[in-house]
Design a protein that fits this description.
Elements: E1 5-9, E2 15-20, H1 26-69, H2 71-79, H3 88-99, H4 108-112, E3 118-119, H5 123-132, H6 135-141, E4 163-164, H7 192-207, E5 239-240, E6 252-253, H8 285-288, E7 295-299, H9 301-310, H10 315-322, E8 341-342, E9 345-346, E10 349-353, H11 355-377, H12 380-383
Parallel strand pairs: 3-4
Antiparallel strand pairs: 1-2, 5-6, 7-10, 8-9
């Protein structure tokens, strides 16, 4: 871009043009606008693909929840008929689910660049498709490659569903349950959608039957961190026993010591615990080859393809990915096809490495990061201390 204006704003908030060049030619401006549009369309496509991917899995979990805990609502989704014996709370949930619909006219632009042509216009119809086609859930578990809304994703190597139902969208309005009184929040309030979803959650809680035989899933509660990690206070008493003397010499109990606490692992006032990290002394090729590669791990064909794809990323790609526009450039996407295949047969890898060499890499990276953060914290003299040891040599003389 040959023409630009740099606008500088000083501390008082006043702006001025610091550098100005001639206005761009019409052709250059057109190319610039095309470039900006391409970036916006690419970001929009990527965001919609991520949203739709999560929407499919959320729909699968929602249908399974109704099947396990509110079977009458699942029966309605499956048969489109209100089941007999449904409670008032269950009827309320059914009515709210029927209001969650999409306008196909407003989503015409959404479907214009989408390979799938089946847009479900309601949440119930999307759930019913999953209920009538249980193989969709199995296919979603077999997915290996990211969803691409512009390409055919229903082939045997992709397994993505043939319908779409986005639960959210960056530009278009998606359905929300109308359960919040209009007087409580205005439509422009950012928290209105959260309150509507919370209201639907409470409505579904009321619809769960009391005579449910299926046990609820275990919920692991997060523990609040203790203010004092060292625990409570302790005292010590000494006991002198004479077990063979009977009642003539009862046990003697000493007075209690002063109350004290156990020192934490990194208490600065406690004696320092010696922590020794063995490092290789001989780092020559002859010395490093002596270390056994006894740390092993398995890599599947899918992970192997991702690793090989990321090997093509260069330092220049990393720098451009964090620069602002117009210098910004997204990181190259790994190939959708696994690179760990040959003749249609996928293969993984059995890798082994040497822990002492990994320790060297960890120490070098630690030193680099600590030195970098020292620009802000000024902690290097407090963190790192090296003392010379005469005669310590990597090679035996």
């Amino acid at each position: 871009m040959e023409a630009f204006i740099v606008h500088v704003r000083n501390r008082k908030g006043h702006g001025e043009d610091w550098l100005a060049k001639a206005p761009p030619l019409a052709s250059e401006a057109g190319n610039l606008n095309d470039h900006v549009n391409d970036i916006q369309n690419s970001n929009l496509k990527d965001m919609r693909e991520r949203i739709q991917t999560l929407s499919w899995y959320v729909l699968v979990d929602m249908l399974q929840f109704f099947k396990d805990y509110i079977p009458r609502i699942y029966q309605y989704i499956d048969t489109a008929n209100t089941p007999t014996g449904a409670s008032a709370a269950e009827i309320d949930v059914i009515n709210v689910l029927n209001t969650l619909t999409l306008n196909p006219i407003s989503f015409s632009s959404y479907m214009a660049d989408c390979y799938q042509t089946d847009l479900k216009t309601s949440l119930v119809s999307a759930l019913r498709e999953l209920a009538h086609s249980p193989e969709i859930e199995t296919e979603l578990d077999l997915v290996e490659y990211p969803y691409d809304r512009n390409d055919e994703n229903t082939a045997s190597d992709h397994h993505w569903p043939e319908f779409v139902f986005p639960l959210a969208d960056p530009l278009l309005t998606t359905p929300l349950p109308n359960l919040v009184p209009p007087a409580e929040l205005s439509p422009d309030e950012p928290d209105r959608s959260h309150d509507q979803l919370d209201a639907l959650t409470n409505l579904i809680k009321l619809a769960i039957p009391e005579d449910l035989t299926k046990a609820a899933p275990d919920v692991t509660r997060a523990k609040a961190p203790q203010k004092d990690a060292t625990g409570g206070w302790f005292v010590i008493r000494c006991v002198y026993e004479s077990p063979h003397c009977g009642p003539f010499d009862p046990p003697l109990v000493s007075e209690a010591t002063d109350p004290f606490k156990m020192a934490s692992m990194y208490d600065p006032d406690a004696p320092g615990r010696p922590i020794q990290i063995p490092m290789p002394l001989d780092i020559s090729p002859a010395g490093l080859r002596k270390h056994n590669k006894n740390a092993t791990f398995m890599i599947s064909d899918m992970l192997c393809g991702k690793i090989r794809g990321t090997r093509k990323t260069t330092l220049g790609d990393l720098v451009l990915s964090v620069l602002p526009w117009p210098f910004h450039k997204d990181l190259p996407e790994p190939s959708t096809k696994s690179e760990c295949t040959k003749g249609g047969l996928g293969f993984g890898m059995f890798c082994s490495l040497s822990i002492p060499i990994v320790t060297i890499c960890a120490m070098i990276l630690l030193t680099i990061m600590v030195t970098l953060f020292d620009l802000f914290f000024r902690w290097l003299p407090l963190f790192f201390l090296c003392l010379p040891i005469p005669g310590l040599s990597g090679k035996k003389k």
